[in-house]
Design goal:
It is a single chain. The protein is an alpha/beta fold. It has a single domain, classed as HUPs (Rossmann fold). It is built from six helices and eleven strands. The strands form two sheets. It has a nine-stranded mixed β-sheet with strand order 9-8-7-10-6-1-4-5-11, sandwiched between helices. Helix 2 packs across helix 5 and helix 3 crosses helix 4. The radius of gyration is 21 Å and the shape is globular. The N and C termini lie far apart (about 45 Å). The site of adenosine monophosphate (AMP) has 22 residues, from helix 1, strand 4, helix 3, strand 6 and helix 4.
């Protein structure tokens, strides 16, 4: 069984980004970039399936500039077998990524496609769902547990108020939630080995996908500063304030 995993290069989760002066986006100059954390979980899960003898090959794919090669090498160091860079400009929209992944699904014929539930830069939470729709595949999003038995995947997914368990016929699309696993640290020998693993580059146009944007960013702004706290003299005042001033989130 082949597993295809989508990995995105994003601003590192520990970086506090700053909005550009012209409010067109966030400033990415000299900012640390990393593999999207949910995608790291996706790679880990695929590698575990391989180690368990369920998957035969783990193929990782990233859409972006040549800088995304670094992200693919991280995935190869975790244990993926080969990588595909779909070269395009950075910041392509979820629909374009979903179309690219659909083209790769048609070509590679994986039994399972694993994506992160969302990219932490755009927080779209759309690509997996769009891919499932375009490729006409069953989907289980926000996976907290995944088991493959025969031609079926059983996925426990995190929903409001509990866990929902779905049984999907393979091939299928799964997106990862935080609790699915804890990704391993890539060891130095594996980082060295990853440098020699195959990394193929194709262009989005070669897959017949038009990646031109369909959305226009009107304005990007910093969140408002938090208002300073106030001290209340007693519990009665606190309760009163909570009743009258607390906003429902
Ligand atoms: P999003 O819908 O943008 O929140 O992204 C959800 C997931 O889609 C990510 O966690 C990745 O697995 C995948 N994805 C999004 N953009 C890309 C990209 N440029 N390259 C590879 N995978 C991506």
């Amino acid at each position: 069984m082949k597993v295809l995993v989508a990995v995105k290069r994003v601003v590192d989760a520990n970086v506090k980004v700053r909005v550009k002066a012209d409010k067109s986006g966030v400033d990415l100059a000299n900012v640390k970039m990393s593999i999207n954390p949910f995608d790291e979980i996706a790679v880990e899960e695929a590698v575990r399936l391989k180690e368990a003898g369920v998957a035969a090959e783990v193929v990782v794919v990233s859409c972006g500039t040549s800088a995304s090669q670094e992200t693919l090498r991280v995935a190869l160091a975790i244990g993926a077998d080969r990588a595909i860079l779909v070269e395009s400009k950075d910041g392509i929209e979820p629909l374009a990524v979903a179309k690219i992944l659909k083209a790769l699904v048609d070509k590679e014929r994986p039994k399972l496609v694993i994506l992160g539930k969302q990219a932490i830069d755009d927080d779209s939470n759309q690509t997996g769902q769009m891919l499932a729709a375009l490729a006409n595949l069953p989907q289980a999003t926000f996976a907290a547990k995944l088991a493959i038995v025969g031609s079926k995947a059983t996925v426990s997914r995190e929903v409001d108020g509990g866990t929902e368990t779905l049984s999907l016929e393979l091939p299928a699309v799964v997106t990862t939630d935080l609790r699915l696993n804890e990704p391993r640290y890539a060891t130095l020998p594996n980082i060295m080995k990853a440098k020699k693993k195959p990394l193929e580059t194709v262009r989005a146009e070669d897959l017949g996908v038009d990646v031109s944007p369909r959305l226009a960013t009107l304005n990007v702004a910093e969140p408002p500063d938090r208002a300073a706290g106030v001290k209340v003299p007693d519990v009665k005042t606190l309760v009163e304030k909570l009743k009258t001033e607390a906003r429902v989130l």
